[in-house]
Structure prediction request, 897 residues.
Amino acid sequence: MKNFLAKINNSKYFDGFMPVLAALSALAIGAVMLLFLGVNPLVAYRAMWVGAFGSSNALAETIVKAVPLLLIGLGICISFRAKVINIGGEGQMIIGALAATAFGLYVPEMPGWLVIAMAMVAGFFGGAFWGAIPGFLKAYFNVNEILSTVMMNAIAVQLMNFFLRGPMIDPNQAELLSKIPQTARLPEAYHLARWLPTRLHAGVIIAVVLAFVVYLLLFHTTLGYRIRAVGFNPDASRYGGIRVRRQVVIALLLSGAFAGLAGAIQIYGLNYRMITDGSPTGFTGSAGFNGIVTALFGGLHPLGAIPASFFFGALLVGANSMQRISQVPSAFVIALNGLVVIFVVSSALWQEARQRKRRIAEVRDDSPPPSEPDQATQDVSV
Amino acid sequence: MSDVQSISFERQRIEHLELKNITKRFPGVLANAHVDFDVRAGEVHALLGENGAGKSTLMKILYGLYHPDEGEIFINGSPVRIASPNDAINLGIGMIHQHFMLVDSLTVAENIALGLPSSRGLLTDLDVVSARTEMLAKKYGLLVDPGAYIWQLAVGQRQRVEILKALYRGADLLILDEPTAVLTPQEVDEFMETIRQMTEEKHSIIFISHKLHEVIAISQRVTVLRNGRRVDSCPTAGCTKHDLARMMVGQEIVMPKLTTPPKRGEVRLELKNVHAQSDRETPALRGVDLQIFSGEIVGLAGVSGNGQAELAQVVTGLRPATQGQVLIEGRDMTGKLPGEIIRCGLAYIPEERMRDGMVQDFNISENIILRDHNKDPYAKRGFLLHRVIAEFTDRLIDLFHIKTPSRETPARNLSGGNIQKVVLARELSRQPRIIVAAQPSRGLDIGATEYVHNSLLEQREKGAAILLISEDLDEILALSDRVAVVYEGRIMGILDNKDAERERVGLLMAGVHPD
Ligand SMILES: Nc1ncnc2c1ncn2[C@@H]1O[C@H](COP(=O)(O)OP(=O)(O)OP(=O)(O)O)[C@@H](O)[C@H]1O
Ligand SMILES: [Mg+2]
Prediction:
């Protein structure tokens, strides 16, 4: 028995199941917490299941939630492959949304499809710009990207608040005393197609198509090759003539671009206007962070991110309806969400440690000492 | 499990260790097939075999890093279970990998103490460790300063620390996997002395090397593996290099030598008064002047650490020159990016090939295109042409006899020598105009070494300008049209092949002008 367990534990396939196991363990702990709260976990989790998958509307909501997670997760797949940690999804998403909204509101009238397409591009570039700044700082000034992306988040929120209260405020609101910080509504013609009566919008198609595009990018293009090479071994990449710093910038830029696109799609598919409650999550719903977890859950593979985002969308939507139906405190839903995040992230770290251990166990007779460069301070000098 | 000797008991010294009927399979490879091997106290048993024959695998099984699919290990006649390196250490087995597992930022004593319980509980006992280390060091002639930091030490000294670390943990049996590959000839002599010392103290030694003269000089017995199987074991006394080579490869091998005069063409690579710093920011090159012509091999001889590594890096654009110029075919390429220099047709076989020459997590195909991944046959309009790459990789695997289950195998799963072959295959197949080859035959078996030497000569015939950096003076003298000797970052002298006698080169290497 012990041998059998050890064998499972040592197999590489086990790694693939680990995120799933992690998520299940989180739910199990959640069940214990529910018992303490005096709620029957079976009832609560049933409510969750029904809330996420119970009706076509529930399913649609789950998918709607999954779209930004998938898009941001795709960006994370790219940056993590280059060993660049992008915590700036929130800010990039906000800037992308701002750019796309501004485009729709202030550009002279054009055919709807054209505006949508160009607004998506605007969102893409907005996020790209916001991602490129920390990328540039990391590559050329060795500024830790974890810190800089988090700071860029704070700046993006303030920018959003400023624009929605001032220059971009809805003209109607400007006249009212309430002055709700929101933009005007985008004209009907600019909305992404919807499957009525649900809120499911065409953004899901864009996201899934892009998952395949990112797959091609990472594994079938020279750019993807360079990004992966730099992530695996910057020294050998430099030797191979790859400009390491440039790939670092590109990786963060692309990562930001996908978050920016997520922001644009959120506006054109769902909200039709931008509105702020002053906090970042008011607009993003923490998609910038949940997208990281999604990517890790999908094994940093763009195609793996598709089911992963669906799972997280279901979790978020289901937890909400569980709260409504079974009267658990809203703090529990937040705690459950946090548990899943912690479990999945630590399982990803554990997985990495196991891989490293396996690798050490497989030391070639002349492999270098297993120096694992600190990712944050990793030297990316060209 | 009751018949298994418990390792927590007071253990006996290893008098006789046996591996019996060991079989180990990896996906697509039979690495060891029913191998028997044994070693006695006070004996050096050498393990020979071509690249990928299964030597390292067998030793990793003994050290608990791999688990055999079949077979058993006996110590002094009773079976033991070695599930991890920890078990191995507790049984008195130590292993020295070719590259070391030391923490650079710690001192020698700290590295030795690492992972051991302190005699003072929660407080460190580094003074005790230092004292014991010094004692051991004296006994075995492994002189190092326990207070020195690892990063300050040369490769040979680091190896001593590794050995001390094993001895400190009470190893009776030491596994040395290609220990001499990274050592300078002087260091090898000292190392041999240490091994003799250890066998006198009744330690058992398993010694792996591709250098047959070392095997003959130090071992009492040899075992030869081929394709994972044991070919033969015999006493070393009475064996000649030729006998061993024949056992290993199954045929005679004649090391190639320069025979034709060089067809010298134009200057392809020129260094003018090049200065550069080492990683520690001390001057490493202090005014190097060197010209290499088309169609010749220039050997760069010198005691390691005199600027050879830095010279190669400056030429290939990986290290900036602080002063002076590097000209490639007359064009000033100083300070250009590595990519631009690659485009001039420069091939580079780096010394630190695991770090610089390979992406371990990439498969062989991906490593083959490392230098040209965005160029014509491999990529079109930004897309990789996987089919072309695959065909090309298969050709190279064939041509260079790279032993691997498939082109999809990650580089880290190849044997040490086969990794080197991948680098060679990539660099030499690029039709280079200039080749910088640093330690090109390090870690290769004799067959592969012959192949590499022939390839270099062939490239010379084709008109490439070749800079051969090697610590193996025999290799340099056999292949070089001219021998340049480097000492403390300067070229001490350049000798023509016919004037390059061993003594003269040796004097120059020591920084002495013979006249
Ligand atoms: N972890 C692994 N996974 C898959 N295959 C492996 C692994 N380790 C070794 N092999 C394969 O087993 C065979 C034997 O490898 P091993 O490292 O034992 O060779 P070796 O005799 O030490 O060669 P060298 O002289 O080149 O170091 C090789 O074909 C190698 O590709
Ligand atoms: Mg080996």
Residues 74 and 488 of chain B are 51 Å apart (CA to CA). Chain B touches chain A through 53 residues (CB under 8 Å).
